[in-house]
Amino acid sequence: MSIRRNSINNTTVIINKKRAERPVELKSKKKKEEKVQYEKECPFCIGNEYRTPAVIYDTKEPYHVRVSENKYPIVKEKSMDNNEVFGNHYVVIEGKNHSDNMYEFTKEQMREIIKAYKNTVYKLYENEDIKYVQIFKNCGKDSGASLKHPHSQIVGINIVPDEISREIKGTKKYYEENKECFYCSRLKKEVQYKKRIIHMGKYFTAFCPYDSTYQYKVTIMKNKHQSNFGLDELEMMELGEIITLILKKLNNISYNCSYNMCFHFLKEENEFYHFYVDIIPRLNPMGGFEIGTGIMINTVDPEVAAEIFRNIQL
């Protein structure tokens, strides 16, 4: 057992492999599902466009990546009755086939999805009221997803969320004290240590973080320092390839595993923050201890998790 801390956001995780040996009676069994291209009740399937709000971005054939307003938004636009917390909430419909999984997408499809992200982020930041934009994907019932059709979401909001604010404050402080970006420093250490590295590309590196708060958590970090979403075509292509690589391997570890994916970046380029993507498998629900204390329990060493990822042959 070991305790690992993140000095930037003050999180604590206990790595305890013994907890994985507990008897589990309530574990659900996942069955292979039949592939369905069209579902008549799905608002995201081609032919059901009338069930979604206005589309603001559409690649058309052959990728069918669309961005529309969310019918059930987390935040609503600013108005006389809504001027404290406001913003915009969009859905990125990632393709036309109802039962597709992101790990099955081609690198070209992934490039178009990430391009849609970038376009929407830039559109949101045209509004000076928007202070923070989050891109996230909920996949599977244990992730909080409500619809099966492959999609992700983008929220622009007029406040900087507390957790992000703490991270920004921590990275600023680290830079002032060390004259180096915290994440650049972390990536250098991970590359030197090697044991937590899963994949190294020209533009991005995927690894299991030292202080992983979830089993098999993966961070995909830009090799070159960058704070905003200003990715070029080649970077978008490689990022998409690495995301699908990780998701394919994760599917080998746990078939149809639920997961969340979150993109981290800021509006403006700076010296202290760094672009990265987190993929968080939802293999075990949080228990009372985690909820009550804020201390996470991880039953798989990040070093072991990375080795398992590396050893999976696709």
Automatic annotation (TrEMBL):
Binds 1 zinc ion per subunit. GO terms for molecular function: UDP-glucose:hexose-1-phosphate uridylyltransferase activity; zinc ion binding. The active site is at H151 (tele-ump-histidine intermediate). Its EC number is 2.7.7.12. Its cofactor is Zn(2+). It is an enzyme of class 2 (transferase). Keywords: Metal-binding, Nucleotidyltransferase, Transferase, Zinc. InterPro entries: ADP-glucose_phosphorylase, DUF4931, GalP_UDPtransf1, HIT-like_sf. The keyword Transferase applies. GO terms for biological process: galactose metabolic process. Residues 28-158 form the DUF4931 domain. Zn(2+) binds at C42, C45, H98, H149. It comes from the Bacteria. Pfam families: DUF4931_N. This is Galactose-1-phosphate uridylyltransferase. It comes from Clostridium acetobutylicum (strain ATCC 824 / DSM 792 / JCM 1419 / IAM 19013 / LMG 5710 / NBRC 13948 / NRRL B-527 / VKM B-1787 / 2291 / W).
